[in-house]
Amino acid sequence: MFKRMSLMLLAAIIVFGGIFGYKAIGNHFMNEFFDNMPMPVANITAASANADRWEASITAVGSFVAMQGTELTAETSGIVREILFESGTAVEQGQLLVKLDDSIDQPELARLKAAEKLAQIELNRNQRLFQERSVSELDLRRRESEAEQATAAVRIQQARIAQKEIRAPFSGITGIRRVNLGQLVSPGSAVVSIESLDPIYLNFTLPEQRLAEIHEGQQLRVRVDAHQEQSFDGVITAIAPAVRASSRSVEVQATLQNPEQKLRPGMFGRVEVLTGEARDVLLVPQTAIQFNTYGNSVFVLREEDGQLKAFQRFVQTGESRGDLINVTDGLAQGDRVATSGLLKLRNGAAVQVSENGNAQPSAELNPQPANQ
Predict the structure, then answer these.
(1) Does the pTM exceed 0.85?
(2) Of 47, 81, 153, 219, which residue is most buried, by most CB within 10 angstroms?
(3) Distance CA 70, CA 196 (A)
(4) Residue 355's pLDDT is what?
(5) Cis peptide preceding 369, ω within 30 of 0
(6) Taking the CB of residue 45, how many other CB atoms lie within 10 A of it?
């Protein structure tokens, strides 16, 4: 019995030892194969670090408002008898735009003018009689009061008639008219809007930390979506005296000349306030930067052993504009960096730069993506 048990134990040791030995040898050779297996060449895109000059500036967004703009309304009720303007046309200050029916007011004005004339004649007569001591001073003063009342009545009636003539309060461009001939309007009824477009205001806000960097008369540039190929120059003309407690921001107003009237009230503007002299910068596409909490890095490309390889390098970055970012330390002008496929790379990885132009990410200082 003891001999049989020994043989069984020996057989088990041999069988299981063979199994575990085979598994250990297999794992060893497998690990050795993967450790020595050559990494596939990563297909990437690349760009060079280029020098440029940037003007020190502050960026913001704002909205355009008319220097003068209002919606004209009727002061009194009446029937529209004349419309003397076309929608969207230029008008001059004081120009008559709409006239209401005054067929009843004009005869009343004529009656009051006749009464004024009679009162003036009576006054002149009493002045002569007073000099001849034929009337008392009380009678003279009564006639003077009657003449003044008659003149005041004429002026009141003239003012009533003027209320039925809607005129342009300033030179500008009219909007879409809101009334038609024969329409009965009431006090406060909208007639037409009018905007003065040249020059034009731009209102925007800046954080309170920037308050010391701006001043009245400072130059700025503005871009709008409607004219993407053009920038518009202006100057800061007003800075609010108080900082908003809710947002800790200060309101700023700039004035821009607008002779071609390309800028319209309500437009959205991207503002660049120029704050200092131009400085030299080293630029790479933002897609080349790996942003990490422990530091930003790039993969620099260089030839080694006859093959192009990527090597990770930590860099310090500064301001970004558009698709480009300023690298303040860690790169030199002309260094080539990987701009796509960074997740496939490791330090010393072999790479191949794609020649396909469609694979290269765009990198522009002022990108204008299509609105799709």
Answers:
(1) no
(2) 47
(3) 9
(4) 73
(5) no
(6) 19
